[in-house]
Amino acid sequence: MAQSSEAAGDLRSVPALLRRNAARFGSRPAYREKEFGIWQSWSWSEAADEIEALALGLLKMGVQKGDFIAIIGRNRPYLYWSVVAAEMVGAIPVPLYQDAVAEEMAYVLDHCGAKLVIASDQEQVDKVIEIQDRLPEFERMIYLDPRGLRKYDHSALFAFDQVQAEGRAARSELGAELKAREEAIGYDDTCVMLYTSGTTGKPKGVVLSNRNIIETAKASCSFDHLSESEEVLAYLPMAWVGDFIFSIGQAYWAAFCVNCPESADTMMTDLREIAPSYYFAPPRVFETQLTQIMIRMEDSGKLKQKLFHYFLNHARGIGPRILDGHPVGALDRLKYRLGEFMVYGPLKNALGFSRVRVGYTAGEAIGPEIFDFYRALGINLKQLYGQTEASVFITQQPDGEVRSDTVGVPSPGVELKIGESGEVYYRSPGTFVEYYKNAESTADTKDPEGWVATGDAGFIEEDTGHLRIIDRAKDVGKMADGALFAPKYVENKLKFYPNILEAVVFGSGRDRCVAFINIDLTAVGNWAERNNIAYASYQELAQNREVLDTIQAHVEEVNASVAQDEMLSGCQIHRFFVLHKELDADDGELTRTRKVRRKIIAEKYADLVEGLYAGDDSVYTETEVTYEDGRKGKIKATLYAREPKVVPVTAKTLEAAE
User: Which of 70, 212, 213, 421 suits a disulfide with 114, CB 3.0-4.6 Å?
Assistant: First the structure.
């Protein structure tokens, strides 16, 4: 097992951790990747050789200390090697979101001044070529997959394996230089620069040091007793801090194996084959998986449906208690074991969760019903609260103290406080160095004493020390009558329903709340097929009368639930539209990490918001959309407003809730 008591100062960089792992765990698997349906594997010794060859190749290309190297593509061992090789030569890796359009990439590449880009395939190469005339610092590009690139101008375009081959050939010439560069890496030198999702403006480059990453990885591995025997699946964007800390920070500290799926299309199959012991997913992934489960159950026979619901109802009360080590009666435990054999076990196996020892979700709040569903199955799913600026970890839920309404206690080494306005502040060894080229934002976010403003509103429970997040501080407001407005609370309840993919609630400063809702095309389309309902598009299905009736029923159930919360009962939805299109990152409505850009949506669909508040029965609207090939177009639609039942809030209502 990796020694958590090791002095992190002796291992002051990710390349230093690589050297340790190659020496101590040389034959153990470090990376796997599925290619052409077959899992390929690299041990720590083999990975170290591949990374060193690439680092030597970068030196041969003239990469200097402090150069920025952009890395673009899906999760592949080669791109993780690129991150570490860049660090090894003293350069700064900057992973980008692979689904970003060329315009988004242009800003990041120009802002950091990337001289070299390592791209996974022709698609990413084409994006960079499209914008290269706007990148004064850009010089060369390395590509991984050669397909489609044979006739390109290769004067500044190099094959990944070619760079490695030239690096190996230059080992005797440049080996001493590489060793000197590696030994010169300081604990407070930059490890990586990651760009924020930019919910309110241009993304900011978050500079994270070796100290930030290694101290955070060390503390979080100790918290959950992570060792070299763990298996993780690396499928989330490499540009996201969560993937960096799990697939590089923790993976290199604990020396566990990182598994890369063949593609997004095969991810669920690959997940089942790997059956990870340590797993992370944002709420949207768990929501999507739950939707798939419910669709499959609706398509199954009556007996299977009855067994599923019977044992699931039993598991809701017993599963979490067993996970937390609470006493459970012999009969209940026996029934749960029977459910494990007949329902929970096969279901976990189908999901790829049969071996999960520690599971986490974060990124945004998860609906309590969704969270409780997975824990009922016996999956040790927990919540953490973090940010890019914290190297992820701010709070975590200890085993035995897991609840759906908190995000846990401060992670090891983290201090918390609540400001006068209710905003959450923290400081820790993982606190970022600065926002690159943005001293003003750095000073606004981090004070001279190291306290960082999270932008989230919350409070710390006096009796447990657990942190509860209410909402984004900028989104929490007051209704016209002074009642608390916290839209995420309601949105997460709505997204529990498989038919609802996304929801956006408005109401700050108003006398009542209204909402936009996106249907889940997979779930609702499956329902339409079973009921012989023909539709030609998402737009047509979204305005189907029966679909609207179903969504209204869901909203009314949520209203009844919200009415029972004394603080948030004023957030019930009075009117809503089912939108004619899915909210999309390419249209600027979501970030690349799928967070809602509430202000942009309110401005873009101002006519719909006002129509809901004006009491209009329907509103005709035209909306600009971006197609997959980058072309712009307009879709036209007439949306029909719905008015769900609202539960009057009385003392009796609140007493019943208690």
Answer: 70
